[in-house]
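Hi X.,

You mentioned you wanted examples for the new student's onboarding notes, showing what a folding record looks like when two proteins sit in one file. Here is a clean example. The first protein comes first, with its sequence line followed by its structure tokens.
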Amino acid sequence: MQTKHIALIFIVIFIFIIGSYIKKTPLTPQTINEQVTEAQKLESAIQNGEPIYCVLDKGAEKMEYWIKGKLFKMKKTTPIKDEETDKTTIINSQAISDQNYIYSWNDQSKQGYKIKIPTEQEIKEKTEEFKEYEDLAPQFINESGYQTLKNEGYTINCKETSLSDEEFTPPANIKFIDPLEMINAVQGKNGELDLGKLQDLTKQYQQVIP
């Protein structure tokens, strides 16, 4: 169940994180044996609840993952080129799971998103719904997923590390918005849009978000 839980975390993160700007550039990937060894190491560590640090590299793009039981943290560095000015901006995105919520944000804004992690029962009830997003998750926690990322030019390295629970705490200087809570907050008794509630909610966020 640990592995399934982490896979779900990946899915939700990649729905709300800034998006993937992956360019298909030819690189020298790891051998199949190296990929399988890392996959087995990571899957075993997750199942045993051991703290793990992983790095995925592909040219200028870099993703880092810290996993400790059901706690999870990700940092992603993505170069984005402006075609008009030919200027490249580096976007640093982060995401954290504290078992209850997933928080995501980047260094371009003081606003981020949070979403409640569904329970195992909710996952069972919405199996078909979650299947829509399975391809969005970087499934490098098994051998087949490793091979897929290898074909895309990624190099993956994982190692055991030491992690405290405090490292999985979202930053206090970011205003996190729960999209589902916002939707519920502006609905009327019968589920219709309440314009009065929408105006009140808009004023609240205008006061806290510049």
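Then the second protein repeats the pattern, sequence line and then tokens:
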Amino acid sequence: LAQAEIKLLHAQVNPHFLFNALNTISAITRRDPDKARELIQNLSHFFRSNLKQNINTVTLKEELAHVNSYLSIEKARFTDRLEVEIDIQPELLDIKLPSFTLQPLVENAIKHGISNMLEGGKVHIYSEAHPQGHLITVEDNAGSFEPPKENHSGLGLEIVD
């Protein structure tokens, strides 16, 4: 069942994210064509990673590349409202983890936290030693999280629990 949920997440394309990404790129095209080209390449990388449905595990380095592709679009969209800090020890980059572990958490931090802030939004991805290995954390500075009361169709938090 968990593997089926992961495959579903891989195939899931958030139309709102795509719409927002294309609008952001469209707005940037005239004033900074090089930046727009870079964003298109990052968007392409992001969706290419989403479509690799047969990959169950990836290295942390690959997962962070996927997250960075996503973040490049969101940073262009939120401009100075979004700051990202990634503190991962280089020796952890080759560890294997389930694919699409971090990106849904980063997306939720932005969607439910940073997007509501007028300024000073920050997402921090970091690792720290833990008795059973290492703990990788995604946090934002938007305050406490209140789960929505209405039904939702997203799978992000359920899959990574």
